[in-house]
Amino acid sequence: MTDYDVLRVFCAANGGYGNELGVVRDGSVMPGRSERQEFAAKLGFSETVFVDDPERGVIDIYTPSARLPFAGHPCVGAAWLLDVPELVTPAGVVGARQDGEFSWIEARPEWPEPRTLRQYASAAEVDELPVPPPGEWVYAWAWEDEAAGRVRARGFPGRGDGIDEDEATGAAALLLTAQLNRALNIAQGAGSQILTAPQPHGWVEIGGRVVLEH
Q1: What is the CATH number of domain 5-98?
Q2: Per-residue pLDDT tens for 14-39?
Q3: pTM of the model
């Protein structure tokens, strides 16, 4: 079995929750796209990262069913694990920094796959939503405290690949931040926390706590 690490990304203040991420630190053991895709499907995490150059931060990201040019929680987790100033993804170069308990990346809203950002009237409505049928990628959100920038959100990938709900979705948080053009403190899933902030020239920072599970 190929060696891999499991991280939890966008954890709560107590280190709980967060979205699991598989990381194969030595991508050379599995260089082909088809075998990487098969391995990501076998692991079953919402995303798995293959590190092709740990010093330069070159990474390759897969869901159980597709290769992604960019994704939020894999980049935040990989930046923390590799402790590099940037990551090189097919979408572009992702800036990275560590700030106390938070790992941050800087990316562009054009990079993630399309998502439907669907606003609801209250956090309670978001909490009560059933998982929608496969189809579009839906990021359901509502203000918990608009003045403070606090958001309640849930992510439904809709791919039909066994991931009915994403515990924490950095790319969707990036898109929402770009749409609202303001810093956000997002509570997603069962208890994960995502921080964001718009940056000059259309960039967005996304930050969260990362824990090495094993």
Answers
A1: 3.10.310.10
A2: 999 999 999 999 999 999 999 999 99
A3: 0.96
